[in-house]
Amino acid sequence: MINFYDSNERKLAEQSSDLSSPRHEPLNPYQHFRHRLGEEILRSRRQDHPFTVMRIVVGSVDEHVSPQAQVESALRSSIRGYDVLYTMQPGEFAIVFPETPGRVAHKIADRIRNNVNGQGRWTGPILIQTSIGVACFPEDGTNTEALLQTAEQSLNQDRKNFVR
To answer: pTM, whole model, 2 decimals?
Structure first.
């Protein structure tokens, strides 16, 4: 029997075990997301494939309503099994879409918005605001900082376009 392993995965496993020791704090969702984003940049460069990262902020206009579980379910039903969904904090998400070019990412963003805002999903008249920022590697940036900055700018522009 031949065993294959990815040296990056082994290195990450070693780092993770180091991070769980009393000397280090565990990674928070944002740090884990940034780490995964860096790995995806390296993989995409090596294989010469694009990928997309999305920042999503979902909130109800009624500040007393927080449909977190329903939103996560809607997001998961909008993405493929190998896409990586991160819950950054309640109502804030990030998704990494491996091997996904920009033109496809914008179609996915529309599907996400429709699924999250879908009629019949919420009990009572709740107005959901879904803002999505998209950044594609390598067009929108070739490093973590550039991609996150582009996604944040796109997210802020989408927020401005929301009409009540």
So the answer is: 0.75
| Separation between Cα atoms, residue 158 and residue 127, nearest integer Å | 16
Query: What confidence category does residue 10 fall into, taking pLDDT thresholds of 50, 70 and 90?
Result: very low
Structural domain spans, the chain? 7-161
> What pLDDT, in 10s, does the model give residues 130-152?
899 999 999 999 999 999 999 99
The SS3 of residue 31 is helix
In whole angstroms, what is the distance from residue 41 CA to residue 105 CA?
Answer: 17
Residue 107, beta-bridge partner list: none
Separation in Å, CA 24 to CA 1, 17, 21: 37, 10, 6
Strand order in the sheet with 92-97: 84-89, 92-97, 51-60, 128-137
Mean pLDDT over each residue of the chain, to the nearest integer = 79
Q: Does domain 7-161 have CATH number 3.30.70.270?
A: yes
CA distance 133 to 155: 4
